[in-house]
């Protein structure tokens, strides 16, 4: 059964002219992406002042690449353990353009990550020439899931990939886990492995849209990890990765740096983008949420480097499965809103699906996911985060442009986008314990509304 209300063939679009379609998810109710009664516009004849959310659709900001999540080995293995009907339900819930929540932009891992069944590399130990390179491991579970998602999502599907660690022999600590650094003498070989990965996936029918240089480039983790200073990372792109991609005919693939938390996003951007030779190979900078909001840091990057993309590449609720938690959904809603309002162009969740323990994970780093698949009961469980993400991903489509908006109180959080078809999507979030009234004001028209406590709404109009 689909968790999404299939209202009609134009499920992402607005109501009739002069009215507003309202979709709501609210705590302590059964409302999950629920269609509420339509709102009606009226003329702003008296110059209404109070409780306003203003829409300024003549102001344009960034364009959205898409929304999605990570197609990890853990997700692939978990989905494969479910019955065929439940597998299809999960794929449809995320990727079906009408039944699902509109995912089109996904992430995968180059070699193993913590959400793999164990460490693995694409080459045998000590193979300096990369003669043993193969993605055979990925053919078992990961590539079939990617192809299945791409087929369901359609032509807008995009995949970007990130490494968690080079092969052990290329690193200073001789292992994939526990950090370590890329040995200088292996920089070119590692860059060549990126190219081989792109080529191998292309041969499997999967095109890579973008790459990040290193997942969590500052972190020494008990799982697959590798540390780069800002200088090491931009030098690697400038001298090795960028030229290797161009020489192989993949200069169109977008390269992103950092791929770690927001508190240092500005400093890493400065290091990468003020080196003109490195910068010409770098499309943008991607980031995670684990150290807090730091939304202003994103605007600082944009203000200094307006031609570079800001991209949210990972976030999840740590500490195992949080069945029934409403706070996890609100965490997603708040962070997505803040990122979008500070120039973020794309957004990807971490694992799309995990099992009843929040894994599998080869070092016990169990986490939550928007969908938990109970492999013992064949039950698909939709967490609050699934619905909060959907209020953005289902209604803000690839190619949508953020437009201006303002609200009367910081108890409300909001963002607004104009979709390619002209539909305006206004997302309103209330994390307080009280219902809050508001009045939408757009082009001299007003519409009265309110949002319940601990709720999120998407309003669609023209």
TrEMBL record:
Keywords: Glycosidase, Hydrolase, Signal
GO molecular function: glucosylceramidase activity
Biological processes annotated in GO: glucosylceramide catabolic process
Record InterPro entries: GH, GH30_C, Glyco_hydro_30, Glyco_hydro_30_TIM-barrel, Glyco_hydro_b
Record bears the keyword Hydrolase: yes
Entry's transmembrane regions: none
Domain Glycosyl hydrolase family 30 TIM-barrel: from-to ranges: 64-396
Location of the Glycosyl hydrolase family 30 beta sandwich domain: 399-459
Record's GO cellular component terms: membrane
PANTHER family found in the cross-reference section: GLUCOSYLCERAMIDASE, LYSOSOMAL ACID GLUCOSYLCERAMIDASE
Family note: Belongs to the glycosyl hydrolase 30 family.
Protein name from the UniProt record: Glycoside hydrolase family 30 protein
Native species: Paenibacillus albicereus
